[in-house]
Amino acid sequence: MSAIDALDDSSSDDDFYQNLTKTMKRKVTNGFGINDDATGDDSFSKYTDAIISEPVQKRSKEVVIDEDTDDDEVSYESQNIQQILEAKSKIYEANARAKAIAEKVSKNPIQTSIAGRTRAARRLTPTHKEIEIASQLQLLESLDAQVKACTHTCKVDTSNRYITEVPVVEEEDDCVHFLIKNLETPSEASDYRSWKMNDPISLLRREYSVKWGCNIKEVVITCKNLPLQDSDTPVSLKMPNEVQLINVFRVGLEKKKDPNKITVKCLQADKRPVEIEFSKSSKFSSIKTLIQEKLKLAVITKLVFDSAQVHDDETPEELDMENDDCLEVYA
User: Fold this and answer.
1) Phi, psi at 82, each rounded to 5°
2) pTM for this structure?
3) Residue 265: which CATH number?
4) What's the chain's Rg over C-alpha atoms?
5) Which residue range(s) make up the domain with 186?
6) 219-223 vs 274-279, strand pairing mode
């Protein structure tokens, strides 16, 4: 085949590639969403024309230069075939890239929809503040349940040094609650008990007189530093329906003196005086024995009253002795 025939065949190839270029242009522009007629941009045509026209121009120049050389016809044809294959390869690559871009663009709506659903799901997810508020509410409910179930005992600060703790009790309509402290034994724990509103305080006084083995009149009961009488009741005292602090202690009764007896101070050298009670009508012989026992003396040599020695057969009444008189004792 001559170079002229090759050129004629190449013209038909040019028509084929031009048609292929137009087809690719429509596919690619549709994939990118580009309208050359609207924009007036012919950059894509220039790109595809350059791909097709480049081998043709080179081939034409080569044919013009070497058209009179018969030996080079085969080499020219092989070069033309190689150039045509390279052009087709470039067109194939461009087509593949266009398809990839079109597929990517077609996937964007799906990706956008997925992203929208993700944002909606995030809006439904509770925020950190909402979670914290819910946690605080659960904590409050738990504390409320613990308060209702806890024991009714609490520590209190009071000026009374004998009070250590005060129980908190449920209200009862017909009872008042006593926290009784025994001041005779401060180390003893306080006694807590319910007391009926109409029960007299004498019942409590009688109970402690039996416990201490003393006269009931020696038992003193106070509330708020005021002594309570036997006939007093919580109702008569208008005690509120709450815990009342009660102190209980014992006092000695003043004994009535026998008019036939006197108390005399027995004096010894370098010792404190000792009071001894004896009868006015007793002989000093018996009184001397009593003094010897009280003072723990082995023997008494003499007794002196008003600077005069006392004889064993005399009596205090005969010596006109009275209470608080002094009797000197010599051992």
Assistant:
1) -60, -40
2) 0.30
3) 3.10.20.90
4) 65
5) 166-250
6) unpaired
Following DSSP, what letter does each residue of 14-53 receive, concatenated?
HHHHHHHHHHHHHHHHHHHT--HHHH---HHHHHHHHHHH
Same domain? 274 vs 225: no
- Token duo for residue 169: 């009790």
Which residues have CB under 8 Å from 216's CB, separation 6+? 205, 206, 209
With tokens 């944002």, the residue in question is 119
Q: How far apart are CA 118 and CA 121, in angstroms?
A: 5
Give, for all 331 residues of the chain, the pLDDT tens digit: 444 444 445 455 556 556 665 665 554 455 444 444 444 444 445 444 554 444 444 444 444 444 444 455 555 556 667 777 777 777 777 777 777 777 765 665 555 455 555 555 555 455 666 677 777 677 767 766 666 665 444 444 444 444 444 444 444 457 888 888 888 887 888 888 888 888 898 898 899 888 888 888 888 888 887 888 888 888 888 888 788 888 888 886 655 667 888 888 888 877 778 888 888 889 998 989 898 888 888 888 889 998 889 998 999 999 888 888 888 899 8
- Asked, for residue 114, whether it belongs to a domain, the answer is yes
d(C-alpha 168, C-alpha 158), whole Å = 15
Residues 297 and 238 in one domain: no
> What are 159's two structure tokens?
């000026």
Q: Count Cβ atoms below 10 Å from residue 303 Cβ, excluding itself.
A: 20
**Residue 101 CB coordination number (10 Å):** 13
